[in-house]
Write a structure and sequence with these properties.
CATH architecture of the largest domain: 3-Layer(aba) Sandwich
CATH class of the largest domain: Alpha Beta
Shape: globular
CATH topology of the largest domain: Rossmann fold
Number of domains: 2
Number of helices: 10
Distance between the termini: 48 Å
Bound molecules: S-adenosylmethionine
Oligomer: single chain
Radius of gyration: 20 Å
Strand content: 15-25%
Length: 268
């Protein structure tokens, strides 16, 4: 038995779609219900309806974002889906290091567009430091909409569990032990700038980017929302730049100028 009625869930789903592009199918009612119970505990609302009325009619932007945190799924890991990193090594780091690929001003710009708690942009940074030689003007933009994940990402401190996918040699080189956690080295964190950004709103970033990671977030959007995001991301890629999706995601069914080069990787 869920605490949310079908009507209440419908109101949540409508709000989540309108504000954040999220598609919440009815089968998520149990999940949203249990998160809702936790969220409302200790908050001054006498009922779910009272909270939903507030959310829909009076909530500030900050309050709406608190609720986004309730709905969003932030699962991530270091070096998740290595095919993306293999692509970077083959198409970017190696040709740049050898001089068979050049960029104006030795500029490299990468965007991790749904960075969650930071493992993705920090993995890109470590990978770059490991595989790219020479002096480069390299920067990684990392964005997400959930405030809580951005706080954690900026701290750059991770428990042992989160470190499982980091090879020992990289852990030794790019992390220091701090109490019971591991802290990312300044040589990596200084490459990364974290920003809050909603993928369904116009981007404030100018680009052009060499690579945009937008992984494991498209699955939460419907086709029209995905098509809109992909066309705006594509416009921020330099010619030849790549959009990398999650390995279970693709642009199938979406009209796009981007060219598939391998599963879930598309080039402008
Ligand atoms: C499952 S995580 C994926 C993290 C990382 N890209 C990876 O593949 O490991 C999805 C992230 O997308 C973010 N997200 C969901 N909807 C968003 C939106 N409309 N704008 C920006 N970020 C969003 C969530 O906050 C969450 O951190």
């Amino acid at each position: 038995m869920s605490v949310l009625t079908s009507d209440q869930f419908g109101r949540i789903a409508e709000t989540a779609h309108r504000l954040w592009g999220l598609s919440l199918p009815e089968r998520k009612i149990q999940l949203v219900s249990s998160r809702m119970v936790r969220f409302l505990r200790g908050r001054p609302f006498e009922s779910v309806d009272a909270y939903l009325h507030h959310l829909q009619h009076a909530a500030t932007d900050a309050e709406k974002l608190e609720f986004f945190d309730v709905l969003s799924t932030n699962t991530t890991s270091f070096f998740r889906e290595m095919n993306a990193f293999d692509y970077l090594e083959r198409e970017l780091w190696t040709p740049l290091s050898r001089g068979t690929l050049t960029t104006s001003g030795r500029r490299i710009r990468i965007w991790s567009a749904a960075c969650s708690t930071g493992q993705e942009p920090y993995s890109i940074g470590m990978h770059m430091r490991e595989h790219l030689s020479g002096d480069w003007d390299a920067k990684i933009l990392a964005s997400d909409l959930a405030r809580s994940v951005l706080v954690k990402a900026r701290q750059g401190r991770y428990d042992d569990d989160a470190m499982e996918m980091v090879p020992d040699a990289l852990r030794e080189r790019w992390f220091t032990r701090e109490g019971r956690q591991w802290r990312i080295a300044p040589a990596i964190s200084s490459l990364v700038s974290f920003r809050m950004a909603n993928l369904v709103e116009p981007f404030r970033f100018r680009g052009p980017f060499d690579v945009i990671f937008c992984r494991n977030v498209m699955i939460y959007f419907d086709r029209a929302t995905r098509a809109d995001i992909v066309s705006r991301l594509g416009a921020l890629l330099r010619p030849g730049g790549a959009l990398i999706l999650g390995s279970s995601e693709s642009l199938s069914g979406i009209d796009s100028d981007l060219r598939p080069v391998q599963p879930s990787i598309y080039v402008r």
